[in-house]
Write a sequence for this structure.
């Protein structure tokens, strides 16, 4: 019995304790729910953040692999394009070389023959040397003619001066100004004064104008002497008859003719040499060689 009572008392105690604790639990259930919700939210937040960081790392790895793949593919395309461009440039350069060689060969063989042009240039250089030599000879000839003409002008001026100063000629009684007794030989003007004859000033007027111009007047009578040598002494005397012009058909001396006539007379073949072809010298040499061969062989 006692044990049953003890059991009943314990059961009652347990019931009371259970009721107390149930009521206490009911009273604290809202706080526990809030705490559980907070713990769950924190845990879930940590879990989500860890998962997001994991996804971010995996996304970075995926992006890195993809970007590396795309970059390598793009680089391979760039290398292929650069290699293709390099090959095309090489092929174009080789094609240009082949075209240059072929065009040079074609032009040299069919358009501009190298050997013909070489022979042309050689003949042209020989022709130039020949023409230059002839021009030098012509220049030397013209220079001599100019010197001779200057000498004639100077001598004419001296003769004219001697005519003007004829009164200074020496005599047996009195030596002249140009024949000083202290000289070992007479002066040149003294010798010239002895050769010329005195002329009146009226006949020397036209001669004076001609001498001032530098050329002798063709229509005026020359000084005593031959018509072409005015400083040679002769025995002709002056006359008061009117001076007639020279005959038109009579040719004058070379020194007083036109330069063109003198040039044609002294250098008749220069114009022909200028008009001939550059191969004229080679053709003449070939003709002479053929003539010599014919003479040696005895054929006509």
């Amino acid at each position: 019995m006692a044990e049953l009572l003890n059991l009943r008392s314990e059961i009652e105690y347990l019931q009371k304790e259970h009721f107390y604790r149930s009521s206490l639990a009911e009273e604290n259930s809202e706080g526990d729910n809030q705490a559980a919700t907070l713990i769950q939210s924190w845990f879930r937040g940590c879990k989500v953040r860890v998962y997001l960081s994991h996804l971010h790392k995996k996304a970075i790895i995926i992006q890195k692999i993809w970007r590396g793949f795309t970059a390598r593919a793009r680089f391979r395309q760039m290398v292929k394009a650069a290699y293709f461009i390099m090959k095309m440039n090489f092929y174009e350069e080789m094609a240009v070389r082949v075209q240059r060689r072929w065009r040079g060969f074609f032009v040299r063989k069919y358009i501009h023959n190298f050997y013909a042009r070489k022979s042309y240039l050689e003949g042209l250089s020989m022709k130039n040397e020949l023409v230059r030599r002839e021009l030098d000879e012509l220049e030397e000839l013209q220079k001599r003619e100019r010197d001779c003409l200057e000498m004639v002008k100077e001598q004419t001026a001296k003769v004219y001066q001697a005519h003007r100063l004829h009164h200074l000629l020496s005599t047996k009684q009195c030596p002249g100004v140009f024949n000083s007794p202290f000289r070992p030989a007479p002066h040149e003007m003294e010798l010239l004064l002895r050769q010329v004859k005195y002329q009146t000033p009226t006949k020397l007027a036209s001669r004076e104008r001609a001498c001032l111009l530098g050329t002798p007047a063709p229509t005026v009578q020359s000084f005593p002497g031959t018509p072409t040598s005015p400083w040679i002494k002769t025995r002709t005397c002056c006359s008061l008859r009117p001076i007639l012009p020279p005959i038109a058909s009579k040719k004058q001396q070379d020194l007083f003719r036109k330069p063109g006539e003198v040039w044609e007379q002294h250098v008749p073949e220069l114009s022909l040499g200028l008009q001939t072809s550059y191969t004229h010298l080679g053709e003449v040499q070939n003709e002479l060689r053929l003539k010599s061969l014919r003479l040696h062989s005895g054929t006509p």
